[in-house]
Specification:
By secondary structure, this protein is mostly helical. 81% of the residues lie in helices and 0% in strands. It contains eight helices and no strands. The radius of gyration is 18 Å and the shape is elongated.
């Protein structure tokens, strides 16, 4: 099966599964695939909103019910949890919306918020708002990447596999660089 067929058949499932956790790389690639016409951009965004919202809700409820045992198991999360708690005291809604944009807090943040006094309904509301902002922005990066390549190369179809490989490589290198910087 050709790359286009795989993307068309499994693209939305990959977007949903990828956005349940971190999701930026998958969503950027989906935005690029939407630009190429393999996926529908509105469906990519809606799928990402659903996956991102459900993933963060699961982390929130995991924090609500199992937070103490999770943090005993992963003591390295403590500084991030303390950071989220400090921010929550001042900016409830803003922190819930912004946590998905803050590197290193995408998974830990909702768990920490679940351990706090924030009511579940409030988290649901602001989590949905955050996902509705995040999904089109991140998918838009991939879409704009495709548009800029189209502007640079008149016959982009010949270069799309190379462009996808380049996009994946850049995403992996960025994640590696961030993780090294974070460990220091």
């Amino acid at each position: 099966m050709m790359l286009a067929g795989l993307i068309a058949q499994y693209g939305y499932l990959a977007v949903f599964a990828g956005t349940l956790l971190e999701g930026e790389t998958v969503l950027i690639l989906a935005g690029f695939a939407a630009h190429q016409g393999y996926l529908s951009w509105p469906l990519v965004v809606v799928t990402a909103i659903c996956g991102g919202t459900l993933g963060d809700q699961a982390c929130f409820f995991a924090g609500r019910h199992y937070g103490g045992s999770l943090f005993r198991r992963f003591p390295g999360w403590r500084p991030r949890v303390e950071q989220v708690n400090r921010l929550l005291l001042r900016y409830h809604g803003g922190v819930i919306v912004a946590v998905r944009f803050l590197y290193g807090l995408r998974l830990v943040g909702p768990v920490a918020i679940g351990m706090s006094e924030v009511p579940a309904w409030r988290f649901v509301l602001f989590n949905l708002i955050g996902a509705a902002i995040w999904a089109p922005l991140v998918a838009g990066v991939g879409f704009l990447f495709g548009r800029s390549l189209q502007w640079l190369f008149a016959d982009i179809q010949r270069y799309e596999v190379a462009a996808l490989v380049l996009l994946v490589a850049l995403s992996v290198l960025t994640a590696w660089w961030r993780s090294r910087r974070h460990r220091r």
